[in-house]
Amino acid sequence: MWRIYVMTYNYSITAARLKAARKEFGYSLEQVAEFCGVQQYQTVSKWESGNSTPSAEKLMRLCDLYGYEIGYFMGEFDCKTRARTDIYEFTGLSEKAISQLNTDHAFYPERIRALSEILTYNNGDIIQLIADSLYYRFDGQAEAGDRTINGKNLNDLYLLEIASELRALRKSIMESE
Question: Architecture of domain 11-76 in CATH?
Fold first, then answer.
């Protein structure tokens, strides 16, 4: 028995994403119209307002222009490519972070090794300290051994601990080489 799957799309998502992509790349309506081979820029404006939809051929041209996949424009996934969506779903990294990892210089062996070391050192202590430094808010006072720390200075303490942990990690790496 054959099963037929019908995918439904929200064309207002398509319209919004087409407009956002054009603005992100700094193209005018006229430039996009010319690239797609349409006579009037108002056609592109209608696509972006949801008053009409581009043909499959025109949508594929737009995908080529922006480097995005058709599934993104059609609302099938929220990152600009399926691969980025899969990475996002697995890791929770933002699309901007994924994009940064995807740049040519991000994959230098020493960067990958450094990232791996930071993520795994002392069961993730450095990452936890960074997260605490970025997101923990405390306005009162905290006890640290025999000292009382004002909440406003707590972030400075986190930064010192991060630096200390990175120094210890560097020492560990140097000793293992």
Answer: Orthogonal Bundle (1.10)
CB 103 within 8 A of CB 119: no
Q: Report whether 49 contacts 15 (CB < 8 A).
A: yes
- Average pLDDT per 10 consecutive residues for the chain, totaling 177 residues: 70 95 97 96 96 94 95 92 88 82 67 80 83 71 68 75 85 81
In order, the DSSP letters of 65-85 are: HHT--HHHHTTS-SSSSHHHH
Tokens describing residue 120: 């795994």
User: What span, in angstroms and rounded, lies between the C-alpha atoms of 25 and 23?
Assistant: 5
Beta-carbon-side half-sphere exposure of residue 38 (alpha carbons within 13 Å) = 22
CATH 1.10.260.40 in the chain: give the residue spans.
11-76
Label each residue of 124-151 as H, E or C. Answer: HHHHHHHHHHHHCCCCCEEEECCEEEEH
pTM: 0.64
* Lookup: tokens for 106: 């991000």
